[in-house]
């Protein structure tokens, strides 16, 4: 109001004391190229019955919101919340918080919405928008200014070859120096360790002082053949320290005790294969549990159909046929662990896996 | 006493004057208060995303106060009995701590997760609105592209957040993520080793994902959301065609008092919805999943719904491996890397592609009804059908199990559906659009069906039509031009009867005033209405 | 009404058809008896000729309970599993050596007798009561031996005496069971229409029998692999944590199916509420 505006074509004088406030607002809107077409109360007359009813409803909504808020606080402070087994009061702690907070927020929200929608005057305003680009000469001036800047810097460099070379030689290393710690710090050679980590598991004898690694349960106890019943399977780990932890995430193996006739078929197929030859022990066969597709444990063993299913992407492997994939997105069979039994009668891996364990990658041989 | 009272009343004025003397705020502030916004329910969908982002920030900050992004192994000794004594990472233990030992912590965790799902869901719904109404056309192409990037950032934020608790399910997700990295030709093993700091899973990934989840990605989201909204502000919102509405104006309500109030109320409604869902529906019960172990997995292992399309594509991919000499590209690469890349970048260029194809260089501030651009609707329907089939396939094992369908049959249905359904959706939606267009034109040419049957002297029965515009000498309506907006098709839409339904679907503009075409002045309802009644 | 239409059809077919049906029933019964006698005689003959002596005298050594069981078996099971549970190729496997635990599981949960050949026997209302199931089990046990449920009838651990059993059971459950039955015990799909059932309604006895015998495609978890105590711990986890404990995270647990139902909920509830809200906000009143 106090700012003096030079609006020669202004039809109203805003300093005129006879103007109502709304007229000043309208003038402001006009200066923003807004025409307020309608701005009228939604009710006939002041304090009409309808208006009072709407106001009552809105008040009620706010009161409900308040009640919800109090309820939330009450539940938060006094309702038992510590976890208990079975059905307990505390099982309703989160639901009560949620419902009371929702009541409070919906109360406030719909109160405000109803106020805006029902109580405030109905309004239609039209604001002009300008789709034209900046005036022609403005574009020209800014363009020329930018060209000027580019010319001043660019041609300056071109005229002075020494500067050009110095900038190239001087600034490039700074950029590289900024990138180096980020990239250099993060980068890891996947092929460094000995034995190379992508191609070895915990069953590699190197990790066990050159002795064959035992198959163990997750608590580290070794396994005798009679521990797995016919038609049974067991998840086994390399019997080295920490062998069952995520340190050896590609080592979990599925040890399966097949029924004799299935074992016979499996053995024939395994012996026909160069790598899987002599890898079974009796009716037992062990496959890597890590799916060759995306690395989930392919551990859904169907003991009658002799299939292994991976629950992540539904690749299915045929146990009796060297665990070749028969359905789904996996292309590569599950590697077979060469099984043996040591002098104490416990399962051992005669060697590490001969196929690469885990999901496939570019340089896998 | 009197002087002080006057001073108090004058205080705001003095203060405001002081501010303006320093910052020259009066004019821009008035412009802001007066800014006009158009009003339509579909313009509020993007706000859901904005508001859920705010809720995510609020609840997320709460969670960081208790979460420990460490993969250090510890034996759990907390309040949840079924895991007591179990070895687990600090990250998982602290997530359990939030769920069971922080008062209201479980509620906050669930709000955070539901808000994340709502964020992504509203982004998709909002994008559909933008796409089908042509709101992405010049001058708003860049804002569409920013929106697509926002979806991708939300996707990454969601995936990193899903991984943080280090439970059995999220570890499985990480394992698949590592396999996806490994599948990239040439650099795969290096990328995976660099991100995980060695062989999967290593000891670093939770910490790295944590900083990405709480700083880098939200920072990017915040910056892009600001630009996104800033552009909407600067370019002014699009509007539907209609009475008084042109390409060079905005018809609606000023920001204050009404529009801002509605936004505030809507924020509360979004917040309330998230709170309600967090209270009613249990989400991601990590205590049942146990700590991540490379040897453990659950049936029905799925990512959150917005990643499910990728998982679905991975499931449907046939086992085609490409061998190049001693090297090979595993089948995982195509759906997961190429598929995700294409699905998040190709749509980005759609505005330019469409403009180029239609040779359309004009500025568009008026929206198009979907039916008015059947081809766009067809393409959109095709894309959404593809997305839907892929997403459903991401949950095909649950569907197979609960509806007693063979899992293998589900996979095959998905494979075939992915190829056949999108073109079918294209055809059907284009036909529907053309049909709707034709019906609009028909009503404009002949008038509204009145449901009144009249018998002509020669015995023929005809239905009386109410013309929407003027009639010629023979009483036949003069065909009207289509104006790009709703054509009244029922008598109560042209004011012949009282509105049948009150509330939601009451016509936005007063019916009697509504011009059906810019070429024709608003019709005066009365005489024609009488004409019908007399004709009866 | 229901009998009306077949009768009508018969009448339509004529007198000949009606006359043919009546004697055939009697003849069928007679034929069955003759065939049964013949089969019995043949079986007996063959058995005495070829089978080891102890086997042939089995019938006479059956306990009273097993005798009852044999009666039930011969009425309901023999068509698929064959005489003396030797199995019939293409219909049903031999039951020699499956043990009474297997019978407890299959018959006790109504999976057997099957109504038709399917990818997998469905759980349904049991056809035999508890006592009859016991008798059948006893018969199969005495016929060929095999795994038996523990006689003390103890299938769970008491958490008062052994509070760690719950966490240990949970760990064993995740190692051995979740890959098929799911973290929440909701079951899961297997290949080609087979599935692992949900554990929500499974009784302790049923779960124990299932682990012991490996019904259908479930692997066998013999007592050498999971000791009886470990089995009891797993069952304790399933019954206390998965069946009895009310989920603390909400009134509804969405079936604990994970992201699939959560995704449905966000669209079905969240987006729906908010779209209707925005319709209301923008609608003129």
Short description:
Chain B: It is a multi-pass membrane protein. Chain B has helices at 2-23, 26-34, 45-64, 90-100, 105-132, 141-163, 168-182, 188-196, 205-235, 255-280, 286-289, 305-316, 333-345, 350-358, 374-394, 396-402, 407-446, 525-535, and strands at 36-37, 73-75, 87-89, 249-254, 322-324, 327-329, 448-455, 461-466. Chain B is mainly α.
Topology readout:
The complex is a heterotrimer of chains A (about 375), B (about 525) and C (about 280).
Chain A: H1 21-31, E1 34-40, H2 49-78, H3 93-119, E2 122-128, H4 136-159, H5 161-186, E3 213-216, E4 232-238, E5 253-257, H6 260-271, E6 284-288, E7 300-302, E8 307-309, E9 316-318, E10 324-327, E11 339-341, E12 347-349
Antiparallel strand pairs in A: 1-2, 3-4, 3-12, 4-5, 5-6, 7-8, 8-9, 9-10, 11-12
Helix pairs in contact in A: 2-3
Chain B: H1 2-23, H2 26-34, E1 36-37, H3 45-64, E2 73-75, E3 87-89, H4 90-100, H5 105-132, H6 141-163, H7 168-182, H8 188-196, H9 205-235, E4 249-254, H10 255-280, H11 286-289, H12 305-316, E5 322-324, E6 327-329, H13 333-345, H14 350-358, H15 374-394, H16 396-402, H17 407-446, E7 448-455, E8 461-466, H18 525-535
Antiparallel strand pairs in B: 1-4, 2-3, 5-6, 7-8
Helix pairs in contact in B: 3-5, 3-10, 4-5, 5-6, 5-10, 6-9, 7-8, 12-13, 12-15, 15-17
Chain C: H1 4-13, H2 15-50, H3 53-56, H4 58-61, H5 64-76, H6 78-81, H7 99-108, H8 130-144, H9 165-176, H10 178-181, E1 188-189, E2 195-196, H11 204-213, H12 228-244, H13 259-282
Antiparallel strand pairs in C: 1-2
